[in-house]
Amino acid sequence: MQFNIGANILLVTIKIFSRYALCFSLETSRSLPNPVEDLEPFRKRFNQCIETHPDFFDVFEMWYYQNGERHGNFPSQKIPDEWFQRNSFICVGTLLKNR
Q1: What is the DSSP string of 5-39?
Q2: Among 33, 41, 45, 95, which residue's Cα sits nearest to residue 70?
Q3: How far apart are CA 17 and CA 80, in angstroms?
Q4: How many domains does the chain have?
Q5: Which residues pair with 69 in a beta bridge?
Q6: Residue 21 pLDDT more than 80?
Q7: How far apart (Å, rounded) are the C-alpha atoms in residues 83 and 76?
Q8: Strands lying side by side in the sheet with 61-66
Q9: Per-residue pLDDT reduced to its tens digit, 42-58
């Protein structure tokens, strides 16, 4: 997992949001040639945590990018197989509206 801070611009409403999240990056790299297989134990632990302590995640949302397309915002939930694919970027966090 990685900690991620950034900005989202919603073109429809022309609003800018800051975001912070913990993310799973399933992009292939030299140090992670098989991200789906290598990070599966972390997904299992994350899903167990969501199942055991759902109230810890009440204030967060989830979204993901798959093949460059953004999906979400969803209530915090277990990470399903459909999201956990190569070239996905899965986030649990929040958006803060900028003024």
Answers
A1: EEEEEETTTTEEEEEEEEEEE----SS-SSHHHHH
A2: 95
A3: 26
A4: 1
A5: 66
A6: yes
A7: 13
A8: 2-10, 15-25, 88-97, 61-66, 69-75
A9: 999 999 999 999 999 99
Query: What string of DSSP letters covers 72-88?
Result: EEEES----TTTSSTTE
> pLDDT grade, residue 12 (50/70/90)?
low
- Token look-up 């810890």 returns 56
Give the span between the Cα atoms of 54 and 78, in whole angstroms: 10
Place of tokens 């790299």: 29
Q: What is the structure's pLDDT at 89?
A: 93
- Can you spell out the DSSP letters for 50-62? HHH-GGGGTT-EE
